[in-house]
Amino acid sequence: DSGVTQTPKHLITATGQRVTLRCSPRSGDLSVYWYQQSLDQGLQFLIQYYNGEERAKGNILERFSAQQFPDLHSELNLSSLELGDSALYFCASSVEDRGDYGYTFGSGTRLTVV
Amino acid sequence: AQSVTQLDSHVSVSEGTPVLLRCNYSSSYSPSLFWYVQHPNKGLQLLLKYTSAATLVKGINGFEAEFKKSETSFHLTKPSAHMSDAAEYFCVVSDPPGAAGNKLTFGGGTRVLVKP
Asked: Is B46 near chain A, with CB under 8 Å?
């Protein structure tokens, strides 16, 4: 157990729907990162939050949004889902607002859009 | 911009033989480099990291990697492969401290098959 908790582990939904993925960071970590892993794109950075504030955006679609709450858990919202959004979504956390120490990853949420 | 190239998408080794996974990076800064491992249907686990200390980095499960600035390489090795090493391995470079983003940039991954 890495200490980063992601729920749900699996999610199957239809095109056009909206889903919310949840992440609880490791205790004491203030930064939360979201990554998408797909067969064609590999691992892509989506977005980062630090202590409740958005810090950086990567290749995140406008249909996707995220937030980090006062208790530091984060949610990734995916709307108007398309077949191509099927992927493994990882959350990671780190103590500080820097990546050069490495992150701790959760076990991911596998999203299947049918 | 930083990038990472893993030179082999698949590597097949026999149990008990050495493993070599090759990685080249491109970075405008002194990089922080990592190797992560992903076992089937599992999350990403940090194997080791280089952050400008010793150029030979030892990680978990007998893996080690050597940072060679002149070759812009960070190859991962293990002297003797075990069946449990079958997984996908990612070479990763991070944004430098203070950079907007702090993101990790992943290589394309190398899938390791271990034959008995």
From this structure: yes
Would you call A8 an interface residue with chain B, using a CB distance cutoff of 8 Å?
Answer: no
pLDDT tens for A86-109 read: 999 999 998 876 666 678 999 999
Q: Which long-range contacts (CB under 8 A, 24 or more apart) does B99-103 make?
A: B100/A55, B100/A56, B101/A45, B101/A48, B101/A55, B101/A56, B101/A58, B101/A99, B102/A31, B102/A33, B102/A48, B102/A55, B102/A56, B102/A94, B102/A97, B102/A98, B102/A99, B102/A100, B103/A33, B103/A45, B103/A48, B103/A56, B103/A58, B103/A99
pLDDT, tens only, B5-56? 999 999 999 999 999 999 999 987 778 899 999 998 788 999 999 977 788 9
- Report the greatest alpha carbon distance in chain A: 38
Report the distance separating Cα A4 and Cα A105, nearest Å.
6
Task: Tell me the CA end-to-end span of chain A in Å, nearest whole number.
Answer: 30
Q: Which positions in chain B touch A106 (Cβ < 8 Å)?
A: 43
Residue B26 CB coordination number (10 Å): 13
At a CB cut-off of 8 Å and minimum separation 6, what does A32 contact?
Answer: A23, A25, A48, A49, A50, A68, A72, A74, A91, A92, A93
Distances (CA, A) of B59 to A1, A76, A90, A94, B85: 18, 32, 23, 19, 13
Tens of pLDDT, residues A18-45: 999 999 999 999 999 999 999 888 899 9
